[in-house]
């Protein structure tokens, strides 16, 4: 079975790891980044307890040696369910089953001021930006 997983966050990564080297599955994992970030520790990066590299790891390393899991760094442009196809910026991927595990973004609930002034923390980059802002305010 050809399985395409969109998203290499906790859900997508867990499924791909579970199916690694499992007979009968040909897995393609698609994510726009080539690394996974351990979100529960973003606060540690923001408070200078850890470096960003301490909570991020390359996806290729996870699946090195896997016979049936292929990772592709790509941006999904369109899903065509009638054709069982995912279109990306690097090409099309056909599937028998599709899993969309793209996670969530920061929700400002339509509040323009919150969006303008709040500092989200949904990535290592945002956690580092928050850390810099905290340090600037105290120095």
**What does the radius of gyration come to?**
18 Å
Strand order of the largest sheet: 5-2-1-9
Percent range for β-strand residues: 25-35%
Query: What's the end-to-end separation, in Å?
Result: 57 Å
Principal-axis shape equals: globular
Helicity range of the residues?
Answer: 25-40%
Annotated CATH architecture: 3-Layer(bba) Sandwich
Quaternary assembly = single chain
Q: Roughly what is the average pLDDT, rounded to an integer?
A: 95
Give a summary of the structure in a few sentences.
The chain is α/β, with parallel strands linked by helices and 139 residues long. The protein has helices spanning 10-19, 42-46, 59-62, 112-117, 124-138; strands at 2-6, 26-31, 35-37, 56-58, 69-73, 76-80, 85-88, 91-94, 97-100. The protein has one domain: 3-Layer(bba) Sandwich (FAD/NAD(P)-binding domain), CATH 3.50.50.60.
Structural overview:
The chain is globular and about 55 Å long. The strands form 3 sheets. Strands 5-2-1-9 form a 4-stranded parallel sheet, with helices on one face. Strand 1 (2-6), helix 1 and strand 2 (26-31) form a beta-alpha-beta unit. The protein has a single domain, classed as FAD/NAD(P)-binding domain, CATH 3.50.50. Helix content is 29%, strand content 28%. By secondary structure, it is an alpha/beta fold. The protein has 5 helices and 9 strands; from the N terminus they run E-H-E-E-H-E-H-E-E-E-E-E-H-H.
